[in-house]
Predict the structure.
Amino acid sequence: MSAGTQTAQTKKRYSTPYMINMAITLLLMFGFGLLPPFATLTPVGMRVLGIFIGVIYGFSTCEIIWPSLFAFLAFGLSGYTNMDGAISAMMGHSVVFQTIVVFISAGALTHYGFGKWFVRWSLTKPIFKGNPLFYTWLFIVFFGLTAAVIDCIPLAILLYAIWQDISDSCGYPKDSSFRYVGMGGILLGTILGYAMIPYQSWMLGLANTWTDMTGQPLNFGLMAGMTVTATILIMTLYVLASKPVFKVDYSIMQRFDVEKLGDESKHLRPRARRIILVYLITVVVVILANTLMGTAFSNFVLNDMTTTGAFCLCTAILLILPSGEHDGKGCIEFDAVESSISWPVIMMCAVTLALASAVTNEATGIVPWITSVFTPIFEGRGGIFVLIFTIVLSMLLTNFGSNIALGAAMIPIVVPFVLSSGLNPQFAGAALIYIINVGMVLPGASAPASIFHSLEGLPDSGMRTKVTLFGCVCTLAVSIPLFILFSLVLG
């Protein structure tokens, strides 16, 4: 075979579907606004709506970075703001900055071996011997809950690698349902755990938007009580039902060779202990501030310091606090952990938070139109119906597009009907923010979903779709009756 033939065979081009999706994304961003306005929309509203729809479509069918950059351009040319204003609104958002500093501190935990140490420590316990189903349940539930503290993306990546090691050491085939169910459980567990308390990243933005529109701050302590219960029950149903649904053979799982984790996993490094301590203190302070509303402590943390400032302080302290390893360095070495920053997540936050704010602005006329669409469904309905519909609609929308964008867009739709129905906004707000995070089925639904669907160890797209859909069904089966119960008992 000639060199020219080899070169020709190795050339790769965009697939036709990808090119079509690219064209649709750009056409929506730059062409939708040329259409005549309809209903209550203004010309500016048409352009902003087109950018918003285009971003969701691009995130869902293509990728994150280039649609985000085109959104910057389209937003700056939309007439809603200018280019400088677009950049400032997107990259200058406080939640974007908070996400960056949290990636640094939370990513450091993974980098310095906390996850591997804990897995080794836990797997050597006698309680798991001969009980693989219990181990699988506890593995997924425990690490799902820890996602409330450790960022779900680096945590999930670590857990995927560990689950592959467990599968290999136990002798499961590459196409085994044990692998897919386990990895799908890790995705679902970490997503749910991350969503339990919206004290960080884009979920904090949703919580703030909900507070602004309802006039009632979300009680993070109350929400945690509901969502922690929901997460444990959802993952219990997922693990128990997966055995008959996917015919998972848990008997093959005899033991896990902890030596695969390496010698460095035998001991928790001093700098990791200090990172955990400072990070946990910050998390506790923010949660307490959002629970003890109206106190001087809460006012200082939330209004003066702000949540973003608290995590900025956390990361700054960890960068200068001695590591405890006598190396003359701080607990976090920035050069070592900067790769933990997920720029697709940063860009997604920047674009969708700014666009969602523009969509809800009265200058666009979009909210009155959307409200009119849902009025026939919601009008005159009681609080229970509104709560159920909010949960179901959140689940459907988040799996067909960006959960960040759609979550922000849903709030102005739902809030008027929540208030008119007499339902306590605490329950609808908690349910919406919790469920809108469960973007799993399509790669563009969320950053964790993009990672899951791109894993080399899970090549069967059909099986990936089945386990993620199964996870969504389990979530609805538990969350609907549970949130109804909470609203009746505590409302």
